[in-house]
Amino acid sequence: MTSETSTEVVVEGRAPTPPGGAPAAAPSAGALLVVLVGTFITVLDFFIANVAVPAIKADLGASAAQAQMFVVGYGVAFTAGLITGGRLGDLFGRRRMFTLGMVLFMLASAACSLAPTATVLVVARIAQGAAAALMVPQVLGIIGTVYTGAARDRAFNAYGLVIGLAGVFGQFIGGALITVDIAGLSWRTIFLINVPLCLVSLAFVGRTIPESRGEGGTRLDLVGALLVTASLGIIVFALLEGQESGWPLWVWESLAGAAVLLAVTVWHLRRRAAADRGPLIEPALFKGRVFSVGLTATVVYFLAMGSFFFVLALYLQLGRGLSPLESGSVFLALGAGYFGASVVSSRKAASVTARRVAVGPLTLAIGYAAVALTADRLDTTGHVLWLLPALLVAGLGMGLTTGPLTNLVLGAAVPEHAASASGLLNTAQEGGAAVGVAIAGAVFFPTLADAGGSAGAYPHAFAVTLVPLIVLGLLASALVLAAPGRTARR
């Protein structure tokens, strides 16, 4: 895959760059920094709320269902809207949609921080997730059109680094903010902090990011948008609620209905593509083996990655009695491994092969196995510091995978559909993480209940839950090997 692209790049006050040419404006580090701030805060808010749920529940008198919706509502809205958000960037401008998404995200974050009741907070979190779905898919589209060659490879790896750091450090940042309790705001600071970050970023958007659009189609595929959003929303919501509700009949009926909707969606997209009417998702994206297999590997990898944060937090706080800040501090070992491996991956971005990428999820599986064995052996008496070496290995696996796998998938995408491809990739990442939580919960909670549900049962339940995550890591590695090719695009 070469760096030549037929994506139209429009810079205000200048003529569009011809296909295959250099960007109309020389890219700067500022453009990357601005879009990565948007990525960081949206991913952070997916994880940070987990730490704050007990404090929110106590302060607002929330029910158990409302407490779950603080997390699920954001995740469902985020995941379900990503593909539509990507297509809106293709049609109306990625910088414009990124800016609009960040403004709405800032306003929704302010609403979350000021929420007087649990119901208002749930609505604000759903709005926050929808705004994130508009903003995030533009990031990879902007990177793919602003940067070329080795600079693009490094930018994709920086994107992967930021996603991992936001997920890994989300627990620590949330715990620290709640513990410090700035101005007596307690949990409200985890949302309020987004406001100044957004304001600073918005001040630099127009100065650093050129406008760009994708070719093909002049109108939004509204039917496709509704079908895709409904299908993904139903799937994610049913899986997350199912494990909490004990998998009642309505969950299986919802999943069956979503499968029918997906079939209708595929038929609609193919029909619209055949008529050259600009489908929401271009079927041509899946003709490439590297893209389709790499996208599948991304789903599998994030099933294993996102769910690990969830069960590790439960084990540390409820099983080992650590405070949110102490629990978040243990996550720093993951962050150290992730950061170190990401730096190495970034330096070798232009020469990474699929075989080298496959080492990442394999290392992740090895790290998970070491964590499981250590936790089971420590039981409730051994010091949690013994977990740090195994967590470091798991972090290395994450760092060796996230950025390079992103590069592999987008490097194989049809360039004129950059934002749509990034929307699909973001959906694979966020949807995989959300569904992974449901999978982990379906193993963790029954195992915990069978062992009596006491604090002493947590180490064993945690270790057992890691078994399917280990399998997922090995599967992701095998899938990457099935998509041979270089990630570098010269």
TrEMBL record:
Residue stretches spanning the membrane: 31-53, 65-85, 97-124, 130-149, 156-178, 190-210, 222-240, 246-269, 290-316, 328-345, 357-375, 387-410, 431-449, 461-483
A matching Pfam family: MFS_1
Stretches for region Disordered: 1-22
PANTHER family given in the database record: ACTINORHODIN TRANSPORTER-RELATED, MAJOR FACILITATOR SUPERFAMILY MULTIDRUG TRANSPORTER MFSC
Compartment(s): Cell membrane
Entry protein name: MFS transporter
Taxonomic path: Bacteria, Bacillati, Actinomycetota, Actinomycetes, Kitasatosporales
Start and end residues of each Major facilitator superfamily (MFS) profile domain: 31-488
Xref: CDD domains: MFS_MMR_MDR_like
Keywords: Antibiotic resistance, Membrane, Transmembrane, Transmembrane helix
Entries under InterPro entries matching the protein: MFS, MFS_dom, MFS_trans_sf
Membrane protein topology class: Multi-pass membrane protein
